[in-house]
Amino acid sequence: MLKEKFIRELVAEDIGRGDLFARISDSIEIRAYIIAKSDGVFAGREYVEVLAKMYDLALSWDIHDGEAFKKGHKLLLISGDSKTILSLERSILDMVLHASSIATLTAQYVEALKETGVKLLDTRKTRPLLRAFEKYAVRCGGGINHRMGLDDCLMLKDTHLKTIDDLDLFMQEVRQKIPFTSRVEIECESLEMVKKAMHAGADIVMCDNMSLEETREVVAYRGTHYPHILLEASGNVTLETIREIAATGVDAISSGAIIHQANWIDLSMKVG
């Protein structure tokens, strides 16, 4: 249902009061295909398949979500009414372009972490109303979703911590009020804050914008005193730095860049 609602709104945005070409043209059966004009990793199939059912189009795929493609690869053949296909052309392309671009960049980060055992996480830095779609694209690229929203994990950031006088007491209240299965993550900028967070009972500690040396100190402290607590590193994460960060011994690295820094790849639709 969520995918259908998303697609209806996407199509309505483009068609408006009606496709002018559809108004003046006759319907014929046509076949169109999407071709790659650059290399990448594909995402968007789940959404295109829902769209095809909604608008009575037949699809023949030559790729799955998460698979790599090369320039010149014909990814998808679409058959159906000409008015329908031509009216939906941009909606289909925008979905697969957006998703595949995120998946492509995510896959590069995942490759940089290869054999480290460290997980790549996304963040809540998503475009308004596109969170589910963009986080789906991250999964297609091999990344792992961090929390989807404020309701599935309690994260205490620096802004939250400014409002808490006694962290130990606050955490006691937290355990009585949030769901039993929910985790608590506390953002820390220093080893001193890490010690307070771990003592208070955090499930996950985020090393926020720490240097490599500071992060290694946190990892060593965790290993000695709280080996059950997970460590996440965040801040200043790039393709050039991510492997160094992973080598500190953290469990996961989060990056908003895999979504908001993804440059669009090149895909095109052709008829014939």
UniProtKB/TrEMBL annotation:
<feature type="domain" description="Quinolinate phosphoribosyl transferase C-terminal">
    <location>
        <begin position="102"/>
        <end position="270"/>
    </location>
</feature>
<feature type="binding site">
    <location>
        <position position="208"/>
    </location>
    <ligand>
        <name>substrate</name>
    </ligand>
</feature>
<dbReference type="GO" id="GO:0009435">
    <property type="term" value="P:NAD+ biosynthetic process"/>
</dbReference>
<keyword id="KW-0662">Pyridine nucleotide biosynthesis</keyword>
<dbReference type="GO" id="GO:0005737">
    <property type="term" value="C:cytoplasm"/>
</dbReference>
<feature type="binding site">
    <location>
        <position position="157"/>
    </location>
    <ligand>
        <name>substrate</name>
    </ligand>
</feature>
<comment type="function">
    <text>Involved in the catabolism of quinolinic acid (QA).</text>
</comment>
<feature type="binding site">
    <location>
        <begin position="123"/>
        <end position="125"/>
    </location>
    <ligand>
        <name>substrate</name>
    </ligand>
</feature>
<feature type="binding site">
    <location>
        <position position="187"/>
    </location>
    <ligand>
        <name>substrate</name>
    </ligand>
</feature>
<dbReference type="InterPro" id="IPR027277">
    <property type="entry name" value="NadC/ModD"/>
</dbReference>
<comment type="similarity">
    <text>Belongs to the NadC/ModD family.</text>
</comment>
<feature type="binding site">
    <location>
        <position position="147"/>
    </location>
    <ligand>
        <name>substrate</name>
    </ligand>
</feature>
<dbReference type="InterPro" id="IPR002638">
    <property type="entry name" value="Quinolinate_PRibosylTrfase_C"/>
</dbReference>
<dbReference type="Pfam" id="PF01729">
    <property type="entry name" value="QRPTase_C"/>
</dbReference>
<protein>
    <recommendedName>
        <fullName>nicotinate-nucleotide diphosphorylase (carboxylating)</fullName>
        <ecNumber>2.4.2.19</ecNumber>
    </recommendedName>
</protein>
<feature type="binding site">
    <location>
        <begin position="255"/>
        <end position="257"/>
    </location>
    <ligand>
        <name>substrate</name>
    </ligand>
</feature>
<dbReference type="InterPro" id="IPR022412">
    <property type="entry name" value="Quinolinate_PRibosylTrfase_N"/>
</dbReference>
<dbReference type="GO" id="GO:0034213">
    <property type="term" value="P:quinolinate catabolic process"/>
</dbReference>
<comment type="pathway">
    <text>Cofactor biosynthesis; NAD(+) biosynthesis; nicotinate D-ribonucleotide from quinolinate: step 1/1.</text>
</comment>
<keyword id="KW-0328">Glycosyltransferase</keyword>
<keyword id="KW-0808">Transferase</keyword>
<dbReference type="InterPro" id="IPR037128">
    <property type="entry name" value="Quinolinate_PRibosylTase_N_sf"/>
</dbReference>
<dbReference type="Pfam" id="PF02749">
    <property type="entry name" value="QRPTase_N"/>
</dbReference>
<feature type="binding site">
    <location>
        <position position="90"/>
    </location>
    <ligand>
        <name>substrate</name>
    </ligand>
</feature>
<dbReference type="InterPro" id="IPR004393">
    <property type="entry name" value="NadC"/>
</dbReference>
<dbReference type="InterPro" id="IPR036068">
    <property type="entry name" value="Nicotinate_pribotase-like_C"/>
</dbReference>
<feature type="binding site">
    <location>
        <begin position="234"/>
        <end position="236"/>
    </location>
    <ligand>
        <name>substrate</name>
    </ligand>
</feature>
<dbReference type="GO" id="GO:0004514">
    <property type="term" value="F:nicotinate-nucleotide diphosphorylase (carboxylating) activity"/>
</dbReference>
<feature type="domain" description="Quinolinate phosphoribosyl transferase N-terminal">
    <location>
        <begin position="25"/>
        <end position="100"/>
    </location>
</feature>
<dbReference type="InterPro" id="IPR013785">
    <property type="entry name" value="Aldolase_TIM"/>
</dbReference>
